[in-house]
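Curious: can you check?
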Amino acid sequence: MTNNQFTLGLLGGFAVGALLGVLFAPEKGTVTRKKMKNQYDDYADELKHKFDSFSDTVTNKFSDLERKTNKIVANSNE
């Protein structure tokens, strides 16, 4: 089985599972869609928070590296 076949099978299984889940959902479609939107919003907020945290970490590390490099250059010019 190639990677492409596996990927297509995985995506196909996911699509069928999602379709069956929606078809046999115990709640009305509007309620289900609202829950899905809320869940998506929660995931999006969490992802944004993690990205912002990662960005801050990279920025701080870059600033530290820049400060250390400037200190080394200043010491070597003395």
